């Protein structure tokens, strides 16, 4: 598998400096610095409980940091009004781990929902076209009238991604996109994440424990260790180490 190039000459779409967050006595994020460059897929790795979700919640303004700066698309998330934050969130798509589809709605209705809610000026025809185009992009146009319960886990994941993409976000946040899927479906989801990057020019943060996914989709990889991104670079750079905190990740995923 060929390593993807880093895109560090692009502009920054997320800039995080000196981010700190504690819950009671537990200091989760201890001065986190991180940049996301336009057009790149940045994979975030780290043991359970190291603060990956906390970081994502701070990026979308669901949690407030104790200290530090978080700029998303040139806006400081902790300094903007609630209305500005809501507008910013529309530009940041969040693909949940459990896909979070509405079980009582068809696939078509699931995709229509965010569009109709957020882009009230669209005609019925425009909504239909957008839904069909997006389902086609994830290869599932044939499921348009099905219920989520009739789909496989991989298909639900794709529909969840399509539903997030339909608002054409500039940034995508993927939370464990391959969790609980078989290896073949994992490869399909990895390919989809790469297709989304190419076709929609999104910049993405991908949280995962799956190093095959990290290697396949990441232009860069960042590993959260003891409250900071202590390893950051290409996949090879991050794992070319004898650091005992890093090696087990590799050994567990790629038994050699
Ligand atoms: N709202 C909250 N109140 C109190 N503690 C919290 C809150 N949110 C997160 N935490 C704590 O912060 C730590 C980091 O949680 P987080 O969910 O970010 O971990 P994670 O790295 O995403 O883990 P996983 O890989 O298991 O999803 C955990 O110890 C968690 O209990």
UniProtKB/TrEMBL annotation:
The keyword ATP-binding applies. Residues 14-251 form the ABC transporter domain. This is Phospholipid/cholesterol/gamma-HCH transport system ATP-binding protein. Signal peptide: none annotated. InterPro entries: AAA+_ATPase (IPR003593), ABC_transporter-like_ATP-bd (IPR003439), ABC_transporter-like_CS (IPR017871), P-loop_NTPase (IPR027417). Keywords: ATP-binding, Nucleotide-binding, Transport. GO terms for molecular function: ATP binding; ATP hydrolysis activity. PANTHER family: PROTEIN TRIGALACTOSYLDIACYLGLYCEROL 3, CHLOROPLASTIC.
């Amino acid at each position: 598998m060929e390593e993807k190039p880093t895109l560090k000459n692009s502009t920054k779409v997320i800039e995080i400096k000196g981010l700190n967050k504690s819950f009671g006595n537990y200091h989760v994020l201890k001065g986190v610095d991180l940049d996301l460059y336009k057009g790149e897929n940045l994979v975030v790795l780290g043991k359970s409980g190291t603060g990956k979700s906390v970081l994502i919640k701070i990026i979308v303004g669901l949690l407030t940091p104790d200290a530090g700066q978080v700029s998303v698309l040139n806006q400081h998330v902790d300094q903007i009004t609630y209305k500005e934050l809501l507008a910013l969130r529309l530009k940041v798509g969040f693909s949940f781990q459990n896909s979070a589809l509405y079980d009582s709605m068809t696939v078509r209705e699931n995709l229509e929902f965010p569009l109709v809610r957020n882009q009230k000026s669209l005609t019925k025809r425009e909504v239909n076209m957008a839904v069909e185009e997006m389902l086609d992009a994830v290869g599932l146009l044939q499921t348009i009238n099905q219920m989520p319960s009739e789909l496989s886990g991989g298909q639900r994941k794709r529909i969840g991604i399509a539903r997030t993409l339909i608002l054409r976000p500039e940034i995508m946040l993927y939370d464990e996109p391959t969790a609980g899927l078989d290896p073949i479906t994992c490869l399909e989801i990895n390919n989809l994440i790469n297709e989304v990057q190419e076709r929609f020019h999104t910049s993405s943060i991908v949280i995962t424990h799956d190093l095959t996914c990290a290697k396949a989709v990441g232009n860069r990889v960042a590993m959260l260790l003891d409250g900071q991104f202590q390893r950051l670079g290409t996949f090879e750079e991050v794992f070319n180490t004898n650091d005992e905190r890093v090696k087990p990740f590799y050994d567990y995923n790629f038994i050699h």
